[in-house]
User: Fold this.
Amino acid sequence: MIENLIAGFAFILNPGSIAAALSGIVCGIVVGALPGLSATMAVAVLAPFTFFMAPEIGIPFLLGVFKAAIWGGSISAVTINTPGTAAAAAMVMDGHALARKGQARRALEISLYSSVIGDLFSTILLIAAATSLAAVAVRFGPPEFVMLYLLALVTIASVSGRHAPKAVFSTGLGFLIACIGLDPMSGAQRFTFGNTDLIGGIGLIPLLIGLFALSEVFTEVEKMRPRLEFLKVGQDEPRATLADMRRVAPAVARSSGIGFFIGILPGIGAEIACWLSYGFAKRQSKNPEEFGHGSIEGVAAAESGANAACPGDLVPMMVFGIPGDTVTAVLLGAFMAQGLIPGPQLFEKHATLVYGFFAVLLISNLMLLGIGYLFIRYLRGITMIAPGLLYPSVVALCFAGSFAVNSSYFDLGLTVIGGVAGYLMRKLSIPIAPLVIAMLVAPGLENALRQSLLLSDGSLAIFVTRPIAAGLLSVITAGVLLVIWKHFRSTQPPKETPA
Amino acid sequence: MKLSKSMAITLACTALLTPFWASAQPFPNKPLRLVTPYPPGGGTSLHASIITATAEAFFGQPMISVIRAGGGGVVGATEVMKSANDGYTMLFGDPTLNSLRPQVEALPFKIDDFVPVARINYSPSIFVAAANAPFSDLKGMVEYARANPDKLVYSSDNLNGLTYVAFEMLKKASGTRMKGIEFGGGGPAMTQLLGGNTMAYAGLPVVVADHISSGKVKAICVTDTVRWAALKNIPTCEEAGTRIIWHFWLGAMVPKGTPQDRIDMLSAGFEKMTKDPGFLALIGRINSKVDYLGSKEFARVIADEQKDLKVLYDSIKK
Assistant:
């Protein structure tokens, strides 16, 4: 393996490949940072151009776009409270809270370092054990996915603050919205009222943009006063320190593991990984009360989890030709158009090239560190723009972003509805995160549940007779019991802090 | 390929800049749009990106790939059906969307809302079984299903989808009962087969071929009248004992009412494209088989297919 990797480095360390990876990273950060333009779209739009390039140019470019876009999504999450991609949704929880305190640079730097560490960890695992891990990942059948989605839902409990009934309401709303569209198995129309636009379901991204960004603008407009003064860029501007990184290290380590694991499972990726990582970090943190109010652990966990999922996603794609998530589904196409048919024989037929790509993943991590640093230096200035100038631009960006997803006017309406709903939810202190998580989880959960019950002829026993499913079920049960126990223990002495 | 690269970039720039000028020039005088009704990464979007990347040389205008996924293809198809019938917006259609489903499901569009322009490719399905399945050929598979009704669990795609129909044909022809689980598409369906959660699957060569040659799955038979060129050792289903012929095509469709001369021009453009060595080289890399049919011939083939699928569907559902 080591000799393969060395051959891979030798093959890929040429000006063309390096330049391609570099420009991919710059494109990726920009696209990721623009709300509505997701990593999937970036790769889908740019992939056809790589068909005409040699594989050692085209693929490094796309890999650069992929990983940089996932990090780039955090820039807008921190600076304007809008996740640039769904994978950055967990970042708005704490990243923007830090920015409000004038610590945008600190938040962005911690996110960058965590992203690079998570990605690096995950890439090393990919190189070391892709084949054997993929063999485990495909054993995940519908019952195992049901349990995994339930686990994600349990983490809602940890991101929803102290208002359990309100969080349940928000979760339920998310599930109901996710039911709109075509029934995934029978194809019957649900809650569409004959409206063609609703057949495709409610798009997550347009709604997300409304819920987070537009509602923030509404709240600020209501205050009718500038929230952020022009901040002076002085020497006292807080930066990420070694002490910060030491403090977030456990969260980063845990989230990298979670992210990689979620990544290697076919069909789910960074969007779920960021929330699971965030939830676990809060559960394990010594300072859980900081979460949602600018916790650097929250920032680090969300980002390292999301970025660790990227190399993980490549595992099933390269070993079995099965995409780990939607971005790798597009990457799969780009590989195939290069004559590199991902699958069992890719590693034998094209060893040098494949290890060359692994080398690119490692090198581009370092590049992301450098380029990301430069971006932060200038982009954190966004939070210093006077609100009177910033918010109109945010509104324009919101609509441009949600239109870009599907070129659909209907989605613009969705963004407005999301904005109003988000505003009301803030007013009533109903947490928004559970709704987003429920919408992310619901389609997969529904499919997996119905597939499992088909497999078992309707018997729920299938969830305990399969070892992996049963193992996950016990983790969930333990988690729920722990939450209940903590709740009762903490409510014994009535020491309620306002959330 | 150096030249083509710069061509591609120019093409992208033109695509962005051209919409507003020169409306007096003959058709097409602005970029064409090819709508893929499925998510990126699948067979359809892969073909569409190759077609749109090479199109300008054959149509005199760039062609933009528009991905409009949702509702198992219904959303994109509906959007094209409602678009102006001026020839600029095309649907990248297939047999389930354009032949079968409008006849048997309540969809927002009808079969004759679309006019065929050109068939681009055409491919059979290959039945495969898990490496540890208790059967290795079609006869064994049918016998197993007969002896164990509803115990043969297979990976399916969507209701009335490619795999779904292939297995309905097999069940009908063999008089057996098997249990299909819909996984939404070929990728997840194949994953479940590889993971040992299901026993069989039927899919396009591009999805199954590599797994067959690596021995991860057992090839059963090809749903065609002749064997698949790249895997000559797999028998046709007819040779293996049960006659099943089921083809999957991808082709361009326009909304009804599009002027005939524009349909002819588009059709001619696709014909030139499918004969171009550069295009064929790209399409060959993804294991696809180009099989062009012009508008009229394509319409006749589809009409026959629609009748056959309706008869089949009725015979299965009764």
Summary: Chain A touches chain B through 53 residues (CB under 8 Å). The longest strand of chain A covers residues 181-182. The longest helix of chain A spans residues 104-137.
